[in-house]
Amino acid sequence: MKNYKLALIVFVSLILFHSNPSYSKQTIQTKVYDLYEPDSTNANYQVLSLIDGLVYELNSDSASVATIKKAFSDKLTIELTVNEDSLVIEEAKVLKSKANSALSQSLNQLESVFSDQKEEDDNNDRLPIQNPDLTFPTTRVSTMQEATNLYESLTQRLSRRSQCYQRAHVWAHHLFTRYNVYSMKVFLFFSKKYIREYRYKWWFHVSPYIYVNDAEVTLDYTFTETPLEMKNWTDVFIYSKKACPSVARYPEYELKNANGSADCYLLKVPMYYYQPMHIEERDVEGAYLTHFRSIDIEHSRKALR
Q1: Is 2.40.50.340 the CATH classification of the domain at 2-105?
Q2: What's the mean pLDDT when you consider all of the chain?
Q3: What is d(CA 257, CA 238) in angstroms, rounded to the nearest whole number?
Q4: C-alpha 44: how far from its chain's center?
């Protein structure tokens, strides 16, 4: 089982979209969620991708620098050609029209979730009310065996193209509809410092969690063999084994990440939040999620088929 999961981790992390096995290249369509400028620790740009949570490298003298910067500043959809081994960007172009590929449709669906000033949908799915997250009734069980039973119920049918936030959403929805479990999600943000020091290829990860008595216990079926308490879970990803400080709001994470010394940050939210952009909208626009949105469930389930 362990060897199988290690192989699956490699599959999930590389995400070979539209790849040709004869060439060490892949093409993806995404948006630039953040852009780290070159500094004394890294001579390259690092491009944080929205669609797959990966960190792509961009040589500082690349002809694509201007394109990437424009895509980032104007929130444009771009197509990247990258070396699938090193994740170095070889070419970038802004998409002038929406393609009809499955990947583009997936990205467009994400965009519809995150668009600014979007009219209220699906019976007021997002309500600008006073923080309901503070009273979220997180499920609490009394034994680790109960947590293990829930963990073992999670789907094993994972697409190689699925992302952590998609799996976490399917799992959280499954736990809720099947067992009436109100799980939280923990977003693990790898800091700019950590990404550069270890040349880490993800900028975030996410898992559902519940309480076993007073302990926060994660249910991350892809990356762990059993339910794990929070620190043991972060140790799977944080090579230094340093503790990850918690932040309450997305702007707090951004501020600390810009110049902080931590390797990682934890942001804990109710099960309804699908992707980091949801949390940012909550904290900047007051767009709280109070139940599962049908568009998010549909998007996440397609990724697991």
Answers
A1: yes
A2: 85
A3: 16
A4: 23
Give yes or no for residue 114 having a pLDDT over 50: no
Coil/strand/helix, residue 149: helix
Q: How far is CA 71 from CA 32, 52, 80, 125, 275, in A?
A: 7, 17, 11, 29, 20
Q: What 3-state class would DSSP assign to 58?
A: strand
Q: What is the pTM of this model?
A: 0.83
Which stretches within the chain are classed as H helix?
A: 2-14, 65-74, 102-114, 144-152, 164-179, 192-198, 230-237, 250-259, 276-285, 294-304
Distance CA 202, CA 238 (A): 12
- The encoded tokens of residue 113 equal 């979730």
pLDDT bucket at 119, cuts 50 / 70 / 90: very low
> For residues 171 and 208, is the Cβ–Cβ distance under 8 A?
yes
CATH number for the domain formed by residue range(s) 131-304: 3.10.620
Map out the domains of the chain as residue ranges. 2-105, 131-304
